[in-house]
Write a structure and sequence with these properties.
The chain has 297 residues and is of the alpha/beta class. It contains twelve helices and nine strands. InterPro entries: Ac_Trasf, LipA_acyltrans.
């Protein structure tokens, strides 16, 4: 059975995406920022399901009913992160102001030769912080993804900087997973997103904004199998070109008996859900899961 987020079609035009990229790199940031307004309006008007999901989430995080203005801001923030990704992938990261807290956590694990599992979310910009880690900090990061739900967008970024896509591992391709243990033993980092589940038999039900929601068990399973600690990372859009990134230790590898694994996994993922909720409240318009996250499938 497909998950809700896999059923959301890609509503993008290759022509307009390439136009925005050209304007961003040739004509300047001010003009590309202006173009984000009509593009955002288009997607707000013509994406009913995503618009409803946005309003539902904003109602939970803001604690009040939300109208078109709040939904527009939600979409517009997402558009800003896509624009900034163009600059980062094109080697123009100096245009952005990225403040990072907790980077010493990664340094410690990388220098120890142990590595760690980075667990992020569709909150702010996962890709920007991955690019910073590889291009500016020299960390060797492999990113685990479930597939390309937005192939046109991904294709444009791949052309801008193919090197950033060399260490992407697509989950489901067994051959590509070979070598992760060696990567871990060499002190490499493995990044994945923890706020979308794929298979019903590998999910954990956690409390999220006061309601039950499904989270994947994959981060805990990989932590146990690869014997790697878990570190959360969130990169929040602050303002025009400004981002705040946080790295925090989440949990050590669960070394428990078979009959205690389920309890340990639920505890770790609940702690992750708690931290995700905390950062969602810090930046309410930064969470980009435009589908019914709380739907009981």
């Amino acid at each position: 059975m497909k998950q809700a987020w896999l059923e959301v079609p890609e509503r993008s035009s290759l022509f307009w995406l390439n136009t925005i990229k050209w304007i961003a790199l040739r004509a300047g940031r001010w003009l590309s920022r202006l173009l984000l307004y009509p593009i955002t309006i288009y997607f707000v008007v013509f994406s009913y399901r995503a618009r409803s999901a946005s309003r539902n989430f904003l109602r939970k995080v803001l604690g009040r009913d939300c109208g078109w203005a709040e939904v527009f801001r939600h979409y517009h923030t997402f558009a800003h992160t896509l624009l900034d990704r163009v600059y980062m992938f094109a080697g123009q990261g100096q245009r952005l102001d990225i403040r990072i807290k907790g980077l010493e956590v990664l340094d410690e694990y990388a220098r120890s030769g142990r590595g760690c599992l980075l667990v992020g979310a569709h909150l702010g910009s996962f890709e920007i912080i991955r690019a910073v880690g590889k291009l500016q900090s020299g960390f060797h990061i492999k990113a685990l993804v479930y597939g390309e739900s937005t192939p046109q967008v991904t294709g444009i970024f791949r052309k801008l900087n193919p090197a950033l896509f060399e260490d992407i591992v697509y989950v489901g391709d067994i051959g590509s997973l070979i070598g992760l243990d060696e990567h871990a033993r060499q002190g490499g980092l493995i990044a994945l997103l923890g706020d979308r589940s794929v298979r019903a038999d590998k999910r954990i039900r956690c409390e999220f904004f006061g309601e039950p929601a499904w989270f994947p068990e994959a981060p805990v399973l990989l932590s146990r199998i690869l014997d790697m600690p878990l570190v959360t990372f969130f990169c929040l859009h602050r303002n025009d070109g400004g981002y705040d990134a946080w790295f925090e230790h989440l949990a050590d590898p669960p070394r428990v008996g078979r009959n205690q694994r389920e309890t340990a996994a639920r505890c770790i993922m609940q702690n992750y859900a708690n931290r995700l909720e905390y950062y969602c409240r810090l930046a309410p318009y930064n969470w980009f899961n435009f589908y019914d996250f709380w739907k009981d499938e």
